[in-house]
Automatic annotation (TrEMBL), chain A:
It is found in: Membrane. The keyword Transmembrane helix applies. The chain crosses the membrane at residues 9-33, 72-91, 103-123. One of its GO terms (biological process) is late endosome to vacuole transport via multivesicular body sorting pathway. Pfam families: Vps55 (PF04133). This is Vacuolar protein sorting 55. It is a multi-pass membrane protein. It comes from Achaetomium macrosporum.
From TrEMBL, chain B:
Keywords: Membrane, Transmembrane, Transmembrane helix. It is a multi-pass membrane protein. This is Uncharacterized protein. InterPro entries: UPF0220 (IPR007919). The keyword Mitochondrion does not apply. It comes from Chaetomium strumarium. GO terms for cellular component: membrane. It is found in: Membrane. Belongs to the UPF0220 family. Pfam families: UPF0220 (PF05255). The chain crosses the membrane at residues 20-39, 59-78, 99-122, 142-158. The keyword Membrane applies. Its main location: membrane.
Length: 129, 171
């Protein structure tokens, strides 16, 4: 586990800002505000994992019910992550947003999600039992 | 874990790690999402201005996907340990048999969804001879149902790693 310092926080916030910039720009340049849904998707994506890891009892790993709840959380997270990419592609395919807007919102969404994931990875130590 | 297994072929060694198991579950969720959004894409495209034909996606096109998803839900609700172990029968006799009946219903719903997707594709798009930009709606229907099947296969395989997983943790 790499140590998280001030530089990490600054770099992560910078990447997050660039991601938001790309998504908002992809909306504002073409006056079609559907790609903002990507931000909501990626912010919501880790939530099922967190909820289900709190629901599962960490003491009994052998019990299968806890693993089933964890799997449900992972399934929903995988669903939401692919949804963040699929949503702009659908909108661009039906000509609701343009193709450059699709590319920008996909890249921006991936940057936002990568920031969330790496933030959770860097600062996981404080939540360890 | 010797000859009482449901499937007779062996899985490779690298699959027996926690990492591969979690990645399999994530991939199953992603594949299901891909299936859903493939079908949603055909519905959105059918409503958009690009669709010049009179064909539109209706509830009939969604029905095979609903059946596939129902089958996937049923298959993954069956606890895998019940399928091969008839011995610990605290809920009556023949638990494995009952579990296999439920599993059969699940697979039948999944295969029925796949067949329904092909039926819609053939009856609504191939037989009237729809030209290609509108034909995509039928192709996407078949692809979506195949992806649901693939997703449940991935989920099934990765959940069958469970016994190795708990064994590793018990050590």
């Amino acid at each position: 586990m790499p140590t998280a310092g001030l530089k990490t926080i600054i770099a992560l916030s910078f990447v997050l800002a660039v991601g938001f910039l790309l998504v908002i720009l992809s909306c504002a340049l073409w006056h079609a505000y559907y790609p903002l849904l990507v931000v909501a998707t990626y912010v919501l994506a880790p939530v099922p994992n967190w909820i289900c890891s709190h629901c599962a009892n960490p003491d009994d790993f052998v019990e299968s019910s806890g693993a089933a709840v964890l799997d449900l959380g992972r399934f929903c997270t995988g669903f939401l992550v692919v949804m963040g990419i699929a949503l702009p592609v659908i909108l661009a395919h039906s000509n609701i947003i343009s193709v450059p807007a699709m590319v920008m919102s996909v890249i921006g969404g991936l940057l936002i999600y990568g920031t969330i994931i790496s933030f959770a990875m860097f600062f996981q130590e404080e939540q360890e039992f | 874990m010797s000859e009482d297994r449901l499937w007779k072929f062996k899985r490779p060694e690298w699959l027996n790690s926690v990492w591969a198991r979690n990645a399999g579950v994530y991939a199953a969720g992603g594949l299901f999402s891909l299936a859903f959004y493939t079908l949603l894409d055909s519905a959105v495209w059918s409503k958009s201005a690009l669709n010049g034909s009179t064909l539109h996606v209706t509830f009939v096109d969604w029905l095979p996907f609903i059946f596939s998803s129902l089958g996937m839900l049923i298959i993954n609700s069956v606890e895998k340990a019940r399928l091969s172990a008839d011995s610990f029968s605290y809920s009556g006799s023949g638990v494995a048999w009952k579990a296999r009946v439920v599993l059969f219903l699940g697979f039948a719903a999944l295969a029925g969804g796949m067949a329904g997707g092909v039926t819609v594709f053939v009856l609504k798009f191939v037989v009237p001879g729809v030209p290609f930009p509108a034909m995509t709606m039928g192709v996407e229907n078949v692809v979506a149902n195949a992806l649901v099947g693939l997703s449940s296969v991935v989920l099934w395989v990765s959940q069958n790693m469970e016994d190795e997983y708990s064994y590793n943790l018990a050590l």
